[in-house]
Write a structure and sequence with these properties.
Order of helices and strands: EEHHHHH
Structural class: mainly alpha
Largest sheet: 2 strands, antiparallel
Number of helices: 5
Strand order of the largest sheet: 1-2
Distance between the termini: 67 Å
Number of strands: 2
Low-confidence stretches: 1-17
Strand content: 5-15%
Helix content: 55-70%
Length: 161
Amino acid sequence: MVYLVVCDLNIVLLWDFGMQKAKRGRPPIAAETEQVAVRLPKAWIKVMQPHLSQNIRDRLYRSLFEEQIDQQRDQHLVRLSGQIEELARRVRRATRADWHSDRLSHQVFLETLRLLFEAQPAPTAEASTLKSDPNQAAEVIFNSYVEEVREYEQGKTGGKQ
């Protein structure tokens, strides 16, 4: 289809090639959704920009399904990390300093950790396929971990220390 437009004695031909105009707005979400209006503090909105809707959906999903996510985690490890955190709080309360910022608090914290790990019941089952000495295996695992952390931190800081 051809359109003829006359503007102030200038004749302009406009060709329509059958192209549709691009639709405005966001692309549709694959899952069925419903729009909900929620009032939020402006500071929260600034923190979650530029992907406000996605951030809200992600955070809501985590809060709704956190229990299911936690059930997939090693519950012994979850309990142990909670115990370590509680011991750190108690050391801070007793010494009036954080374990990572004071020499004496650090020593007290390490001793509480030693006592905590000694109090853990040792499993009697032997399901591991480990063939080497446990102390050597622990050193290999720990050194590998430390190297990964070091590489990550150097990459994060651009190699500057």
